[in-house]
Amino acid sequence: MLFHYHYWTPYLEETEKFYKKQGFKVHQRLGKYKGEFQSFNPPLDWDDFRSKVILFRIIEMKKGLVNITFGMGKRVKFDHIGFLLSKEEHDQVCLNAQALNWGVKITERRTFITTPYGFLIELQTHTDVIELEDRTFIKRLKILTKKKGLENDLEKLFGTPIESVASMGGEKVTIREAVIEGLPDRKTTDPNEVTLLNEVGI
């Protein structure tokens, strides 16, 4: 199940505020302050630490079956998408990635696969990355890539067509559209130029 995407961005506070308006909740803020990583999680808000020079590594937000993260970057950069799998599915996808000669980095918490399309794929087996209080979910991501063949390679990677990801040619690698069912707005664009669509009722 496609559940996640991550961006590096200079627009941290603006991105958090945007997704809050769409019903997402902040679950963690982790950043380096005075040389050490520290948590700035809720109930802390931006007014509590705005005056501090914090290099945020990750801000994590959740709504239903959707998990969105972002961290400090000098410019907007799409980093990865994430799939939630069983342990058996995870292990098979890793074998498939090796057959494709794609890099595989397995850690205790998650696995990253390096694709030739300019972004990573995260494999996640821990269900605490999502919440089940509502059924908000990512129906489809439209990803701009400079290289053709993403859909075919995803089918080889997962052993089945991945209908939740579509690609189109572009001058940069980014998410053009995220169709997310369960949002309050039918169409809106986040500070990183990702257009969010809710097709229900359209």
TrEMBL record:
Xref: InterPro entries: Glyas_Bleomycin-R_OHBP_Dase
Superkingdom classification of source: Bacteria
Protein name: VOC domain-containing protein
Organism of this sequence: Rossellomorea pakistanensis
